[in-house]
Amino acid sequence: MSEVAERLEKIRARVAAACARAGREPGSVTLVAVSKLKPAALIREAYAAGQRDFGENYAQELRDKATELADLAGLRWHAIGPLQTNKVKYVAKAALSFHALDRLEVAQELSRRRQDAPIPCYVEVNVGGEASKSGLAPEALGPFLESVRALPGLRVEGLMSLPPPTEDEQVARGYFRTLRELARQHGLTGLSMGTTHDFELAIEEGATLVRVGTAIFGERT
Ligand SMILES: *Cc1c(COP(=O)(O)O)cnc(C)c1O
Q1: 96 and 78 in contact (C-beta within 8 Å)?
Q2: Which residues carry this modification: N6-(pyridoxal phosphate)lysine (predicted)?
């Protein structure tokens, strides 16, 4: 068994255990394996171990890997990083979903460029209120959703967040609950939240997708 396969097996067991603690079906959580900056060979190993959902941050890297790995049937790419409008075309073409929508210009460009079925999007919210972070302030969410929902070519599935790292479990849960409550207020069911550091807490708080990189592919350099 490859190292990646072994790690995946452990993560799947932890996902299942977190679901059990929360009284949720294991199938209610999608594990997105974040492969940014990792070679295509490792993605092949994960695919051989049954993994189908992969997350990439950088649009050109996503484009290149989608081309290189086009032979892997049923592989699903999730674009999870912030996008510049001139890179939107790569995501529109190659991605199953986009998890970091927080600018109307990007939504408009995605809407123009998307040719297949509407791309499911997760609107990024800055739940930690960090000045330097991407994502919308919670107050900006309502007007933003109204504008984006009018656009063809994309569909808002839910909300996404990458809260500031913390060792305090209650603080981490608080961020995830804030995101869940915002989604509920806006009639959304998808919640893309939780990474290597905190995916179990995120699942207990309702995550429908978790984005796990380091615990599957090892540290990034
Ligand atoms: C890199 C990244 C992840 C994965 O983080 P790990 O700590 O490696 O699990 C998840 N989400 C986003 C948006 C990322 O950029």
Answers
A1: yes
A2: 36
Q: What spacing in Å lies between the alpha carbon of 59 and ligand 1's midpoint?
A: 15
Identify the pLDDT of residue 131.
82
Atom of ligand 1 nearest to the CA of 220: 8
**Does pLDDT of 116 surpass 90?**
no
- Give the pLDDT score at 15: 98
Instruction: Look at residue 129 in the predicted model and tell me its pLDDT.
Output: 87
Atom of ligand 1 nearest to the CA of 211: 10
Query: Rounded mean pLDDT of 113-124?
Result: 95
Q: Is the pLDDT of residue 221 over 90?
A: no
Which residue segments constitute the domains of the chain, with CATH numbers given?
A: 3-215 (3.20.20.10)
For the CA of 99, the closest atom of ligand 1 is: 13
Here the tokens at position 105 are 């210009």
Q: Would you say the pTM of this structure is higher than 0.90? A: yes
Task: Tally Cβ neighbours within 10 Å of residue 103.
Answer: 17
Burial class of residue 210, CB neighbours in 10 A (0-12, 13-18, 19+): buried
Nearest CA to ligand 1 atom 11: 211
The residues lining ligand 1, judged by C-beta closer than 6 Å to any ligand atom, are: 34, 36, 57, 80-81, 162, 195-197, 211-214
Question: From CA 82, how far away is CA 103, in angstroms rounded?
Answer: 9
Phi–psi pair at 207, nearest 5 degrees: -55, 135
